[in-house]
Fold Transcription termination factor Rho.
Amino acid sequence: MTETDLITAGENTDSTELSNAVTTDTSDVKTTAVTASLGSLSTMVLPELRALANQAGVKGTSGMRKSELIAAIEESRGQANGTSVNDGPSRDHGGSETAVSTEAPAAQEEQNDSTVEAAPRRERRGASRETGAAARTGTAEATESDRQGTAVDDTDTLQGSQSDTKTDERGPDAGSDQGVDQQGSGSQPRGDEDGEGRQGRRGRRFRDRDRRRRGERSGDGAEAELREDDVVQPVAGILDVLDNYAFVRTSGYLAGPHDVYVSMNMVRKNGLRRGDAVTGAVRVPREGEQPNQRQKFNPLVRLDSINGGSVEDAKKRPEFGKLTPLYPNQRLRLETTPDRLTTRVIDLIMPIGKGQRALIVSPPKAGKTTILQDIANAITKNNPECHLMVVLVDERPEEVTDMQRSVKGEVIASTFDRPPSDHTSVAELAIERAKRLVEQGKDVVVLLDSITRLGRAYNNASPASGRILSGGVDSTALYPPKRFLGAARNIEEGGSLTIIATAMVETGSTGDTVIFEEFKGTGNAELKLDRKIAERRVFPAVDVNPSGTRKDELLLSPDEFGIVHKLRRVLSGLDSHQAIDLLMSQLRKTKTNYEFLVQVSKTTPGSMDDD
């Protein structure tokens, strides 16, 4: 081998190594540039990414989200870079192209080497500056995206196709994906953590809002669960259903410290209604168990019976408002003993039937409370099948005690020293209890003392509506007591609700007069008391002529109706004092009303045929 051959071989070897080094450095520069350019993809909006993907040859971009578009562009560019890098060595080995000519001098080779070594440094510095700008831009856009919510999603939706619209409207998940994509693919860990934290907080807000909405739809809490090892205690009382919760009043009709909480789920599931008499059980706290500070009342964990029957039967009962009302056609006999002239006079002047709506119109100190006691005792004795309820509203405590001791019935009272809200709640719960009994086909008699004071309580307890009548009575305060009195009716399907209420007149209060005038035409029986007769110490101080019952022919036999008609004609010719004196004197001479009517038929001239 000659020196010329050795020199030529050495030059070829140096040329090959130099071209390999240049090719490798060039591929590194291209890879770095591609990576730097991909870092800025996250800062581009969806239409720009779709245009770039179409240029790169990616198909089906209309149905892709932003993250999918970036991944497709990266994959397309990666394949293109791999192809160009693999083709470089093949062309070098084929001898078709070389990076540096073999015939170039040594100075040119050194210059090329310095140029190749400086190029990656410049590219890396440019890529770093571009990456930093992309990071700042991504963070700013992520912050702006968090501030404006889903503004970017709305813009993309307007610019995209229909498929993109469906994709972007899927909810908070799509928004969170887009927010993460806008913050970069991995070069900004702090920005990603911030975005995920904000998205997490936003997601928690959505979850909390959903829980609150589900809680509002499902009612006030779920039912309390009873475990096998729990010790239960039986409870019983009247159910009081309020707006969003219910209680079992265990100490009467007023709220007490031992009331039992009932969830609205249990109320709806078992068809419970206000006024139901329920029995069940509550869980007894274990020894050493700390009571829940937020739970003031013990919840009902088991429901055993409703109104003395099974829970399934209570679901099938009819509604009180859908029952057919009729005129009273079955009489309640009040006559007991010969010396009880009060009930005997009422039987003659104002006969009462099952389902009657009667008013006892009385001035102060006319003996209305005594008349109520006599009526209650007479109903208890002559009509034991009737359920008697005496409701005392805004009365004196000593009268309540006297009524409880003298009447064999259910006495429900709220004395005058209690707030007006207690008066209204007691009256409402009592009448609802009576309705529940009527739904079962029972006959109920409610004695109310007095409806005028109940109207006062509603006037004081109800919020002002802006329409004030004379006497300072609010217009909305007259409806609830009228609803109470209007519940009285005789039911065609069976059962009845009789209400006998007292009404105060001549009290010197314009408000009492307004309340009485509101109820004056609602009753179908009226017993009027006279103060002047009471001042003469004549009891019962009944004004005979204005007292009476509508449709009394349905309660009396034809013969009895004719005799009573003759008696009323005789008494109508006298004044109120003479009429009651004559009637009382004749009743004292007989032992029963039947004997008295026979005597009237024999001694009174005229008959019904003469009319």
